[in-house]
Amino acid sequence: MLVKVLHNANCSKSNAVLEYLDENGVPFEIINIIEDPLSVTELKTVLKKLNQSVFHIIRKNERLYVEKFAGKNYSEEEWLQILSENPSLIQRPILIKGSVAMLGRPVENVKYFIEK
């Protein structure tokens, strides 16, 4: 089954997962979330597949988060809009296989996800 990878080319962990998939012959499709940001609706679909709230995928150590969003009390809907407009704040990579998804960190967890 084809694995979709929500990817940021500037992220070493994201690149490591792509390398792992390639080395293991796993067919995958790259979705560059920086060049082609996800809509609010697409984010909701991903979160449903992750079985997580939006708060689970926010990169709280990202400089943009610290400078602009830390300590603010945004609703889930507001965060969806913020992440759609600021995709660098989304944890990555996120792997999607059919109706399920996972954060691709650590890369060791990817093996289990692929074989499942």
Describe the 3D structure.
The protein has 116 residues and is of the alpha+beta class. The protein has one domain (3-115): Glutaredoxin (3-Layer(aba) Sandwich). The protein has helices at residues 12-23, 40-50, 63-69, 76-85, 107-115; strands spanning 3-7, 28-32, 94-97, 100-103. The chain has a four-stranded mixed beta sheet, with helices on both faces. It is globular. The model has no long low-confidence stretch (mean pLDDT 95). Belongs to the ArsC family. Its EC number is 1.20.4.1. GO terms for molecular function: arsenate reductase (glutaredoxin) activity.
Summarize this, please?
With 116 residues, this protein is an alpha+beta fold. Helices cover 42% and strands 16% of the residues.
CATH superfamily: Glutaredoxin
Strand order of the largest sheet: 2-1-3-4
Q: Which spans have pLDDT < 50 for at least 5 consecutive residues?
A: none
Please provide the count of β strands.
Answer: 4
The CATH topology annotation reads as Glutaredoxin
Protein name: Arsenate reductase
Enzyme class: oxidoreductase
Keywords: Oxidoreductase
Family: Belongs to the ArsC family.
Topology:
Layout: E1 3-7, H1 12-23, E2 28-32, H2 40-50, H3 63-69, H4 76-85, E3 94-97, E4 100-103, H5 107-115
Parallel strand pairs: 1-2
Antiparallel strand pairs: 1-3, 3-4
